Amino acid sequence: MKITEISKPIATRKLSVGSEAVVVTIGKPELFEDGNDYYCPYAIDFLGKKKMSYAGGADAVQAIQLAMQKIGVDLAYLKTPSNERVTWMSDSPGETGFPAE
After folding, report:
1. Most CB atoms closer than 10 Å: which of 23, 53, 68, 81?
2. CA 69 to CA 20: how far, in whole Å?
């Protein structure tokens, strides 16, 4: 399955890399087409490029939890021109508020 847009955003977080913004948007969890499990779409927008993905779970809550973890990993490995780490509300590079485990 390929995500091309976040049609029903439920949350947005603005982070930074130096003076550049990194915007994370999390979409409303929805049922997969088979009707059994849920997926939670998300987008990471940085320097005009948008990475779109999703996480699947047995229910909507698990889909959100797993999306948060995937976002944390994606942010930890985000390639930046200056090799700086993404930061949120902190002077400590790499602290994004998303788990990366």
Report:
1. 68
2. 23
